[in-house]
Amino acid sequence: MEARKKGGRPPLGESKKTEEIVVSFTKKEMEVLAGKAAEVNMSIQDFLRELVAKGYVKNIDTPEQREIKRQLIALSNNVNQLAKLAHLNGLKIMQKQVSEVLDFIDELLKKYKK
Fold this sequence. Notes:
By secondary structure, the chain is mainly α. Helix content is 65%, strand content 0%.
């Protein structure tokens, strides 16, 4: 007879966090810490872990980058519409419009990489 499997998530093994440290902060220090963690969209615990492991925490999602992402998402709708028109009208007619959109996407991606 086959043993019945347990349900649920498999055990974490060695990645399970078993060590604990207690650190106290003043109210002002805690506000600063919470603010810095919020700036990079991380929990305080994750922020501190990354700070200890790397010595710094890099903000990879600035407001400017979020705006560029929003524009890229909007452009994807335009590209889809252009593709539909190209199927209806033929690619030669749509070539100029597609080229303009691709140039704009290229500029946004260059800004995003900065």
